[in-house]
Design brief:
The complex is a heterodimer of chains A (about 110) and B (about 120). Chain A is mainly β. Chain A contains no helices and 11 strands. With about 120 residues, chain B is mainly beta. Chain B contains 1 helix and 11 strands. In chain B, the strands form 2 sheets. In chain B, strands 2, 4, 5, 6, 9, 10 and 11 form a 7-stranded mixed β-sheet that branches. Classes of the chains: A mainly beta (about 110), B mainly beta (about 120). Chains A and B meet through β4, β5, β9 and β10 of A and β4, β5 and β10 of B.
Chain lengths: ~110, ~120
């Protein structure tokens, strides 16, 4: 059974720092991996999607990497801002119709 | 283009009552799904659909029914609400063709359900 783990559960950093969020999964047989952002009381917003054949994807200050063989992904956020404060969720797609989510990392950027 | 919409935003039910959570998308996506989000459990798949007239069970289907009569709508029915169904429910959709854009999952804003 595919399991997704995100460490740490919470992270607090001062504004301007670069930071890395971690995601690990137990089964390397995945179609893709997706990073989401969730603001309190809101839905999920897709940030980046990495296909299983890719190593990384970039969007603005965000860079996500994927090492399928070791079951790891990282989300790198450059020059963090208070508006980046949110919960970040990692999800893998082990089958066509299913996403398996981690529990998320709650990120706080302090001004 | 509204994306994925859900109604209602909040709902309180008594044990044994039934209700339907509405979900609609205007992106002509074939794939739609329902997740519930609970503290400590993350998001879990309830039911999904690969197109109009086709539905299947996810990880936690008991107590829920779905149907898909049109591409746009995918309602979730609670037949007899129980306190264990207190949760936040998210509807999601994605496209049908093999491309990065169609693989991206889009989520609605959620319905917060409390069952007393």
């Amino acid at each position: 059974k595919q399991e997704v783990t995100q460490i740490p559960a919470a992270l607090s950093v001062p504004e301007g720092e670069n930071l890395v969020l971690n995601c690990s999964f137990t089964d390397s047989a995945i179609y893709n991996l997706q990073w989401f952002r969730q603001d309190p009381g809101k839905g999920l917003t897709s940030l980046l999607l990495i296909q299983s054949s890719q190593r990384e994807q970039t969007s603005g200050r965000l860079n996500a990497s994927l090492d399928k063989s070791s079951g790891r992904s990282t989300l790198y956020i450059a020059a963090s801002q208070p508006g980046d404060s949110a919960t970040y969720l990692c999800a893998v797609r082990p089958a066509a119709q299913k996403l398996v989510f981690g529990q998320g990392t709650r990120l706080t950027i302090n001004p | 283009n509204a994306g994925v919409t859900q109604t209602p935003k909040f709902q309180v039910l008594k044990t044994g009552q039934s209700m339907t959570l509405q979900c609609a998308q205007d992106m002509n996506h074939e794939y739609m799904s329902w997740y519930r989000q609970d503290p400590g459990m993350g998001l879990r798949l309830i039911h999904y659909s690969v197109g109009a007239g086709i539905t299947d069970q996810g990880e936690v289907p008991n107590g829920y029914n779905v149907s898909r009569s049109t591409t746009e709508d995918f309602p979730l029915r609670l037949l007899s609400a129980a306190p264990s169904q207190t949760s936040v429910y998210f509807c999601a959709s994605r496209g049908s063709h093999s491309s990065v854009l169609s693989d991206t999952q889009y989520f609605g804003p959620g319905t917060r359900l409390t069952v007393l």
